[in-house]
Amino acid sequence: MATLKEQPSDAQFAPGVEPDLLVIGGGKGGVGKTCLAVNLAVHVAQKGWRTVLVDADLSCSNVETVLGVEGVQRLDDFFLSKGRKSLEPILCDTHFENLRFVPGTTGLLDVANPRYQQKQAFIRELRQLQADLVIIDLDAGAHLNTLDIFLLAETNGILVLTPEKTSIDNAFKFLRAALYRRIERFYQSQDVALLLKRTETLPAFLACLSKAEAFERSTRDTLCSEILALAHSIRPHIVVNRARNSYEAQIAANIFCKHARRDLEIEPHYLGHLAFDPCVQDAINSSQPFVVSHADSPIAGCVADVATRLGYI
Amino acid sequence: MAKESEPGGNAPDTYDALRDATQESSGLFGRMNRKFQDALQTGRADNRQYDARAEAADNPRVTSDDLALRRARHTKPRKMVIPDGVLIEGSLTSGSESEVAGRIDGDLNVDGDLLIAPTALISGNVRTVRCRVEGLVDGKLECSDTLDLGQAGRLNNAVTVGKRFTVAGQVFGNITCGGELRLLASAKVTGDVHCKKLIIEEGAALNGICTMRAPAQRANQAPAQSKPAPGAASPSRQQQQQQAQQQAQQQELLDGATPNAASKEETPAKP
């Protein structure tokens, strides 16, 4: 069930208070990450929340196409500039009130692979933005860049999946890669990284660890409890896209949650579904978010439900 | 079974006879009635005959997950009824209209209308579209459309409603309502309220902080301060400030509620 956002208080909107970061990822390509990110951002902005949409797709960005806005400066400028970096110059206004936008990269090879410190600086700058909500659209796959941004945001990101076996499988692999990356970054040890590469599930990894005689028993117990705590700290939201009915979405979410619980010790939270709707394609091809062009469609209602469950009413 | 003392004591008393009796009328209405009764009793129409063996096609790797995903697309929603006297441990999902009068020790997801009867006790979180509550819900309640809380109803946790929330019962938790919140005369609410429109009838009790302004408006009305220099305010300091403000708000809330009223309202409502 939704961990509802704190009731918004006046203090929360004072300048200098960090915005909430909401990362949208999901492993497989074409499941609707960008579509959800854009429409959720437009919907939340329409409700009166100061929203920033960030296209963090470092290789193939296309939020601009879906949103129908063209940025002047791009994320390349942020990653390539020397010295103190700021996202404010890159931010561009959109034709929606309360919504600003950070355009993605051009896909140049240099930029598509920023260093870890650059990613840290990127997230730090995102936290400095004057906004209530920052929605970050990630790219497909489980590359290190995607995983780092997903983990650095340190909030409960959204994983988008469709009711297909491949999508559920990829979302699971993305989550597993994220967890392993977190464990790897936490210990920064070659041995741990090597052991992680050989075990497919977290229980198997813990079993290996508890048998490792290189460590003392008390050290092993501490390691196991630390790793379990790391796993429990990740609690992603699940949105099932392109579901024919809510029952189908719930079944897909249940299957995913079952695997995540059993093999990763992670308990995801099912946030809601987006119904299958042909109007989505029309909206994308006309460069307009469907929450604007098809405001009365069932899928626009689904986006509203997701926003309500996240606490943005 | 027919008793011998009754008139017609020689009536047939076997199940076969009973089956024949129900199939007696072979006319149009009889057939229609039988179809209707079948659908009503079993909740399965003709198109719901599945064959797991054929679907799995001798593939040992096919699991129940695969078949569930495959079938879900074509499943037609049926009404779900949990009568009084039924205990369900674990989560429950229904794709359509539902009625709960029993005890659910877990979460409940309903994509449609939900009636929580006076006898119902739900310990987990509830998520639904439209809902009427006459029973008791311990977990969080999320309703994307409208929610009616009857006089006998009680909610012990946070409530989120998308469009309209009418309260006649008790709420012990924060209320977030995207539209209209109406507190009827018998309503008792202990918790913070965030809504777009608020109607309070005479006699209703509300103990908590109420916020109604849109966030963007609030940002404009906040005192103009220069953005702190990068690195000047560490996140920990900001968090401390936020915590201090939250504590102050909670203290205000506690001060606002009279001790007598609070102790009275903490006792569970009688069914």
Can you tell me about this structure?
The complex is a heterodimer of chains A (313) and B (271). By secondary structure, chain A is α/β, with parallel strands linked by helices. Chain A is built from 13 helices and 8 strands. Chain A has helices at residues 33-46, 63-67, 75-80, 116-128, 144-152, 165-187, 190-198, 202-211, 217-233, 246-264, 279-285, 290-293, 298-310, and strands at residues 20-25, 51-55, 92-93, 99-102, 133-137, 158-161, 237-243, 269-275. Chain A has an 8-stranded mixed β-sheet, sandwiched between helices. In chain A, helix 10 links the parallel strand 7 and strand 8 (269-275). In chain A, helix 4 runs parallel beside helix 5 (144-152), helix 5 (144-152) crosses helix 6 (165-187) and helix 8 (202-211) packs antiparallel against helix 9 (217-233). Chain B has 271 residues and is an alpha/beta fold. Chain B has a domain at 80-214. Chain B has 7 helices and 22 strands. In chain B, the strands form 2 sheets. In chain B, strands 1, 3, 4, 6, 7, 9, 10, 12, 13, 15, 16, 18, 20 and 22 form a 14-stranded parallel β-sheet that branches. Chain B has an 8-stranded parallel β-sheet with strand order 2-5-8-11-14-17-19-21, with no helix packed on it. The interface between A and B is large, with 48 and 53 residues.
